[in-house]
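In response to the reviewer comment on reproducibility (Comment 2.3), we provide here a single inverse folding case reported in full, input and output, so that an independent group could reproduce the run without further information from us. The structure tokens appear first.
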């Protein structure tokens, strides 16, 4: 899976251009979903463009709110996303955890409701710099992964995104990524009793010039790309490496 996370970027014109260009330039591989996550306001606009072109692009939301009823001004729930034929939703992104102070119980609520609504989930985890410096990455990730216990993970992909690599230009090195992805897969097999290997994608300052090396690891099942996904030619070239 190769995911474009546009964060708070874009306009109708730039989304139109991106969907057109990427639909033309990628060589679709049915085993490698190409997922576009625009700001949620543009979900319906993007859905129509994708459908009109019969494009292979899948649509993802960057946002879903935790649901305790309907009294949440500005809220967006998983059923609304399904209603607009959204395929994927990002949950647990470090920017949501940091800027919206998202707690584990809210992440867990979002996961359960999105599974119930039939959405596929990209569940993001990753350690901050101080944790990495103190060799605490595995313990930190194990705590984040705990909320998956008891959930049906058939349609869940994990995105490993070290917080210190997001938007900084400092991608993690291939060897480090491999070790962490192996840890995540082992944790899912042993602590979550998953029989099938779960897909784990990497995110954090992926660009055209480092994507091939990162993807060449057998433990890396795809990429989650922020800044470098905004340019449709760049993004298509990265997709075509996979
Ligand atoms: C992200 O948005 O999750 C991300 C990894 O961003 P960037 O590629 O810009 O580091």
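Designed residues, in position order:
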């Amino acid at each position: 899976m190769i995911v474009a996370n546009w964060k708070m970027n874009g306009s109708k014109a730039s989304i139109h251009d991106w969907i057109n260009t990427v639909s033309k330039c990628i060589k679709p591989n049915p085993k490698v979903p190409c997922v576009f996550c625009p700001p949620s306001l543009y979900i319906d606009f993007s859905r129509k463009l994708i459908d009109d072109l019969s494009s292979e692009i899948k649509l993802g939301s960057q946002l879903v709110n935790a649901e305790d009823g309907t009294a949440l001004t500005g809220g967006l729930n998983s059923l609304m996303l399904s209603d607009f034929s959204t395929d994927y939703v990002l949950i647990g992104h470090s920017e949501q955890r940091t800027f919206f102070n998202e707690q584990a119980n809210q992440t867990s609520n979002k996961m359960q409701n999105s599974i119930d609504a039939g959405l596929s989930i990209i569940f993001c985890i990753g350690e901050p710099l101080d944790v990495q410096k103190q060799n605490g990455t595995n313990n930190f990730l194990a705590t984040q992964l705990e909320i998956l216990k008891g959930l049906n993970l058939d349609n869940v992909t994990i995105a490993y995104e070290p917080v210190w690599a997001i938007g900084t230009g400092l991608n993690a090195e291939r060897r480090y990524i491999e070790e962490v992805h192996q840890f995540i897969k082992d944790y899912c097999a042993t602590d979550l009793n998953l029989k099938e290997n779960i897909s784990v994608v990497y995110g954090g300052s992926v660009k055209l010039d480092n994507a091939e090396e990162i993807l060449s690891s057998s433990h890396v099942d795809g990429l989650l790309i922020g800044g470098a996904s905004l340019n449709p030619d760049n993004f298509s070239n990265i997709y075509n490496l996979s």
